[in-house]
Amino acid sequence: MARWLRLALVLALGALLLAGCGSEDDESPATTPAPTETVDGIDPMDDASTAPVTVSASNTETALLTDVRASRHEGYDRVVFQFRNALPGYDVRYVERPVLQDGSGAEVTVNGAYVVQVRMENALDADLTQESAPPTYTGPQRFAPGTPEVVELVRTGGFEAVLTWVVGLNDRVDFRVLTLPGPPRLVVDFRNH
User: Fold this and answer.
1) 107-140 pLDDT, tens per residue?
2) Exposed, middle or buried: residue 190 (CB in 10 Å: 0-12, 13-18, 19+)?
3) Which range, of 42-46, 104-108, 111-115, averages the lowest pLDDT?
4) Whole-structure pTM over 0.85, yes or no?
5) Domain boundaries of the chain, sorted by first residue
6) Separation of alpha carbons 189 and 77, rounded Å
7) Are 59 and 158 in contact, with CB atoms under 8 Å apart?
8) Among 2.40.128.110, 3.40.50.300, 2.60.40.3500, 3.90.960.10, what is the CATH number of 30-191?
9) Contact residues for 185 (Cβ-Cβ < 8 A; gap 6+)
10) Mean pLDDT value across residues 50-75
């Protein structure tokens, strides 16, 4: 009996610790109002649309990308671009195919029926101020996150302080763009219901 009691206590403590950890991606946005109240636990994304979202760069130093990730949430799939030092300007919009690589103009294959381009200005994924320009982002240049709406993320350029990724989607869904502090993050949520 004492053994079962210890096991139950350990499991309860583990659950409490996990609940307290939370995800950084669930923080309230720094520059956008908090999402509206959820309905049955699903964010209705009242502020989302298919219209382009553009914010001019205000950072004086180049924003250095350190991470790209995607995850499923109730009502949306979230794509996060995390930076070391600053938040870049951005232009997020649906684009037609073919998708072309920055600089070379080579055609890039992107899985999914629709494509959203995320163009970040005054941003790179390598630190050009350091000798040999070490990469600040060392993750995959192309990956499929396995979420309901986001099929694939692909890096299509890092040229003249413009960093571009595209998001392949199953459907032409509404999206919203948020920014989060500490560390600086650009977040794009795609409706998945």
Assistant:
1) 999 999 999 999 999 999 999 999 999 999 999 9
2) buried
3) 42-46
4) no
5) 30-191
6) 6
7) no
8) 2.60.40.3500
9) 24, 25, 80, 81, 82, 83, 87, 179
10) 96
Kind of pairing between the strands at 142-143 and 114-121? unpaired
Rama region for 75: left / alpha / beta (φ>0; ψ in -120 to 50; rest): left
Tokens 């553009």 locate to 54
Region 25-31: mean pLDDT is 43
Helices (H) and strands (E) in the chain — how many of each? Answer: 1, 13
Which among 184, 82, 96 has a CA at the least distance from the CA of 137?
82
- Please tell me the distance from the alpha carbon of residue 172 to that of residue 128, in angstroms, as a whole number: 36
Helices (DSSP H) in the chain: which residue ranges? 2-21
Distance of alpha carbon 122 from alpha carbon 184, whole angstroms:
14
Contact 72, 100 (CB under 8 A): no
The pair of structure tokens assigned to 93 is 């919009």
Q: What is the pLDDT of residues 167-190, one digit of tens each?
A: 999 999 999 999 999 999 999 999
Give the per-residue pLDDT at 193: 72
